[in-house]
Amino acid sequence: MAVEHAIPELPNLLTVLSERFHDQPLLAWLHHWENLVFASVIALALCAVAWRAARRPSLTPRGWQNVCEWFVDGVDRFVQGLVGPAGRRHVPFIGTLFLFIWFMNLAVLVPGMKSSTASLNTTVALAVVVFCYVQWIGLRANGPLKYLDHLAGSPRGVVGWALVPLMLPIHVLGEFIKPMSLSLRLGFNVFAEDVLLAVLVGLGLTAGLALHLPIGLPLQAFVVPLVLIFSTVQALVFSLLSTVYIALMSPHEAHA
Amino acid sequence: MPSILQLDLQQILSQALSFLLLVWVLRRFAWRPLLGMLDARRAQIARDLDAASRQRQEMEQLKQLLGRRLEAIDEEARRKIQEAIREGRRIAAEIQEEARAQAQGILSKSKETIELEVAKAKVTLRDELTDMTVGAVERLLRGKLDAKTDQQLVASILDELGSSTQTGSDPVGS
Distance between terminal CA atoms of chain B? Predict the structure, then answer.
């Protein structure tokens, strides 16, 4: 188990290899980019499943296509329920975001893997993408003038225009706070889960040593269900809030 | 500093690009085909339901049409049966009338035959009576006759006449 700045973390394959072969620059480089590496593994796995499910789609689905269609239909209904019929074109973005975050959250349960979402580098990157996507949607759907009008709080009347110097910075700040809250919430929640798992694994190892057992006690098994639930909830919250931001930025008649 | 707080712009940009690439790949090779398939299936189901509804309506119309046709066929059958009964009765009456006429003809022909036979019998009887009378006269003329023999002869002739009168149909005529 790697101990870094007194915060325990579960060792993954790259940390073990880089500590074992510390003179290998490639392993050191992979260890430096481990979040991206594990995120790419998840992405490749998703691509493989998607390729298998959608390579020959049939009107009578079987196997993987059945499962994927069930998920696709669920995301489609979820997004269209929040954004309206125009939300169909955001379904791939939201669905991919949910799957990517969900499987990255769960990756910590696979021995040798790591939750890339336990790093702010990953969650900030995802939040920045969502931020850019939402602003692009707002500009494209409303046009520059209506977009600015929206940021200024849609001022109407003298009082409204008088409040623009106050409302505009607040709205702009709010737009920047959204990705910050998204990234910090996800990052710290997953990091806390990983730390909890690492603490329990360490405690189990210590207890095993104290009891002269050949292996540690699997104390982390008690929090695995919690990790499953929290990982799903965090992915859902990130996707849900992203969808809400898209809905708020879309023209109001689209989701009326 | 804990690892979670170590922000690295390169890593952030790399993660963002890898996510965008994943979105593009999945959108191109998974989401669009699967969403298209869902839409196609939805449209297919809607079309099938519409077709089923139309076919149900057509079946109802066909059923009503067949019901009306069956009623018309029943009515036609009843009418034809009534006509056949009337025709049968007419033919029966004709046959009856013809039979009656034929019977009448046979009866009248039989009467004529009987009358003819009676006439023939009368002629035959008359001829026989004549022959007998002639025979009796001849026997009277040829024989030696006395009063007693004459009386017996006359009596026997009268007996013969009496018996032939009993067997004949018209003694007055003889």
Answer: 175
User: What digits encode the pLDDT tens for the residues B10-28?
Assistant: 999 999 999 999 999 999 9
Q: Are B35 and A90 in contact (CB under 8 A)?
A: no
CA dist., res. A193 & res. B89, Å (int):
106
Test A188 with B41 for CB contact under 8 angstroms. Answer: no
Give the rounded percent of residues in chain B with a pLDDT score beyond 70.
90
**Rounded Cα–Cα distance for residues A80 and A97 (Å):** 16
Q: What is the pLDDT of residue B165?
A: 62
pTM of the model: 0.72
Whether A69 sits inside 8 A of B5 (CB atoms) is no
Report the alpha-carbon distance of residue B69 to residue B57 in Å, rounded: 18
User: Is any Cβ of chain A less than 8 angstroms from the Cβ of B84?
Assistant: no
**B7: nearest CB among A46, A47, A121:** A121
B23–chain A Cβ distance below 8 A for any pair = yes
Residue of B11, B12, B35 with shortest CB distance to A76: B35
Residue carrying structure tokens 């997004």? A79
Cα–Cα distance measured from residue A188 to residue A118, given in angstroms and rounded to the nearest whole number: 7
Q: How far apart are CA B84 and CA B79, in angstroms?
A: 9
Quote the percentage of chain B above a pLDDT of 90: 59
Return the residue in A71, A100, A104, A120 with the most chain B beta carbons within 10 A, the one to mutate for interface testing.
Answer: A120
Q: Average of pLDDT values for B92-100?
A: 94
Of A43, A54, A125, the CB nearest to B12: A125
CA A222, A228, A231, A236 dihedral sign is: negative
**Whether the Cβ atoms of residue B122 and residue B170 lie closer than 8 Å to each other:** yes
Coil, helix or strand at residue A85:
helix
Q: pLDDT at position A65, please?
A: 83
Among candidates A68, A121, A124 on the partner chain, residue whose Cβ is nearest the Cβ of B34:
A68
ipTM computed for the complex: 0.88
Contact state of A93 with B23 under an 8 Å Cβ cutoff: yes
The per-residue pLDDT for A1 is: 47
Predicted pLDDT at B146 = 66
Residue located via tokens 């106050």: A166
| Rounded CA separation A30/A15 (Å) | 9
Instruction: List chain A residues with pLDDT less than 70.
Output: 1-5, 252-256
**Residues linked to residue A8 through DSSP beta bridges, in sequence order:** A3
* Cα dihedral sign, A41-A43-A47-A53: positive
pLDDT at B58 over 70: yes
